[in-house]
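User: Can you model how orotidine-5'-monophosphate sits in this protein?
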Amino acid sequence: MPRLDTPLIIALDYPHLDQALAMADRLDPRRCRVKVGKELFTRTGPQVLEALHARGFEVFLDLKFHDIPNTVAGAVEAAADHGVWMVNVHASGGRRMMEAARERLEKRQLTTHLIAVTVLTSMAHEDLVEVGVDAEPLPQVERLAALAQRSGMSGVVCSAQETAALRALCGDTFMKVTPGIRPSVSNDDDQRRTQTPARAREAGSTHLVIGRPVTQASEPMSALAAIEQEMYL
Ligand SMILES: O=C(O)c1cc(=O)[nH]c(=O)n1[C@@H]1O[C@H](COP(=O)(O)O)[C@@H](O)[C@H]1O
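Assistant: Here's the modeled complex, given as structure tokens:
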């Protein structure tokens, strides 16, 4: 499979395999990657990965592992053994957890990208306070991104509102995978820290995760094309 230069990752957030594959069949694997998350994977297991790989898609397996180091290392290894392009953990699981996961991939020479979630894009200051973090999202994202980089992660998941700051802190090649993308015509749904595709790219997001604005559109590829236009205008 040739390396894709598209930054777009479409989130296949569905409860059933047939729904996810019906959407995948409306997308072009040369113009986007796809993301499989907790609901779909818990329902279908690895068969969804096989079906998407057979259709030519590179897959981000978004299970956001967060557990003791040995458990997470094993889970990340299992994900990589399925041949996924990218897998993620929660940076708040700590340095030893992230290092254990990275070392396990290195030991097996598995090339799956390993990234860490900083602060979920659904969270604002008041949500952080409720879980005992008395900080604005940005400094907490910066703290966790710096820790993720020191722990050998290839990049982080953050809001595109924080991308520019992380570019200064962690450099250009450190991946900045940004969900919460909302084209200028969409609503925010349950997201709190959103950004438009154009501003995310300008700020230096390396990858844009987009779910509902594409998957709930009557013509998903037209919605994707509009996002491409918005990004490159
Ligand atoms: O890791 C993720 O992908 C993720 C992290 C985050 O902080 N926020 C976030 O929305 N996501 C995922 O990105 C997707 C966003 O979907 P939409 O809000 O429909 O565009 C969902 O599949 C979320 O699970």
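A couple of observations from the model: The pocket of orotidine-5'-monophosphate is lined by residues 11, 13, 37, 62, 64, 88, 117, 120-122, 157, 179-180, 189, 191, 209-213 (CB under 6 Å). The chain has one domain: 8-227.
User: Helpful, thanks.
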